Amino acid sequence: MSEAPRDWTIRDIVGWMADDLKKRGVESARLDAELVVAQALGLDRVQIIIQSQRLLAPSELDAVRALFKRRRTLEPVAYLRGEREFYGRAFKVDRRVLVPRPDTEILVQVALDRLAGRELYARVADLCTGSGCVGITLKLELPTITLDATDLSDGAIAVARANAQRLGAVFGCSYRHGDLFEPLRDARGAPAHRYELVVANPPYIAHGEIATLQPDIRDHEPRLALDGGGDGLDIVRRIVAEAPGFLSPGGALAMEIGAEQAGAVASLLLARGFRDVRPTKDYGGHERVVSGLFG
Q1: What's the domain count of the chain?
Q2: Rounded to whole angstroms, how far apart are CA atoms 183 and 43?
Q3: Are residues 29 and 115 in the same domain?
Q4: How do residues 273-282 score in pLDDT, each as one tens digit?
Q5: Which helix (H) or strand (E) segment is 274 a member of?
Q6: Class of residue 151 by CB neighbours under 10 A (exposed 0-12, middle 13-18, buried 19+)
Q7: Whole domain around residue 44: which residue ranges?
Q8: What confidence tens digit (pLDDT) does each residue in 109-159 have?
Q9: Which terminus of the chain has fewer Cβ atoms in its 10 Å neighbourhood, N or C?
């Protein structure tokens, strides 16, 4: 920050950081700068505006500088702040999990719709739970359900458990480390329970497309949660193949998928015997979720 004046106000530092990020191709440069400064100073964005003329103490400037160095490498703001809002709640996040995104809220909405009329005693499986944002949100919206969440990453399960404890999604919930349905089998390898709903946000980026992702995703978010194999559907195929053995009669499967994958995923469900197969669009108009009923 050698280009900056010796004495910094909050407005000075936000403006300089916003200009720097804009040069690096960050579209939300001003917002990111405000959030970084707010996080470093322990303030919210309203206070940043109110106190814009306040001079920063050397210790405050050091704290801002340390955090901004990370954002200059395009590390996601959510990791810098340690949380991201999802469905109106703040979820803790770090490098062990994907950053929850608004489009994934569509998966929650589809799940709630598919559970309508069955939610009182429904059992829900949340595969590839990550931060736990989908499963925990369903539990908080429908407190009577039983939730079993799994993830292949033990780090992700630790994050999900911490979010569950902080947000109050512990009773009637389990968070299990393992590959998709494997933690949901009994000692003989058979399904331990049947589910009214299986929900998943699996890795669905084609392996060859990982390098083309935005740097904040490609270089910082966990590859395990992104890479869906050659065509992006390796994990999706496994879920579709195994889900019928875990679903109760008329149970639903709902998955988030890539923007151009809805047709292929719908065909997979129909071929496996699912009915009422529907794509649902996200906020950008892309078919982001595919769901269907089995039995």
Answers
A1: 2
A2: 42
A3: no
A4: 999 999 999 9
A5: strand 274-281
A6: buried
A7: 10-72
A8: 999 999 998 888 899 999 999 999 999 999 999 999 999 999 999 999 999
A9: C
Residue 224 lies in a domain: yes
Q: Does some domain include residue 77?
A: no
Q: Is residue 210 within 8 Å of residue 227, measured between CB atoms?
A: yes
Sign of the CA dihedral running 118, 127, 92, 106 = negative
Listed in sequence order, the DSSP H helices in the chain are 10-23, 29-41, 45-50, 58-72, 77-81, 105-115, 133-141, 154-167, 215-218, 234-242, 262-271
Contact by Cβ (8 Å): 79, 94: yes
Q: Are residues 225 and 275 in the same domain?
A: yes
* CATH number reported for the structural domain that contains residue 196 in this entry: 3.40.50.150
User: What per-residue confidence (pLDDT) applies to 222?
Assistant: 94
Residue 84, H or E segment? strand 83-86
**86/246 Cα distance (integer angstroms):** 28
| Residue 2, in any domain of the structure | no
Residues 93 and 195 in one domain: yes
Give CA–CA dist 35/48, Å, rounded: 9
The reported pTM is 0.91
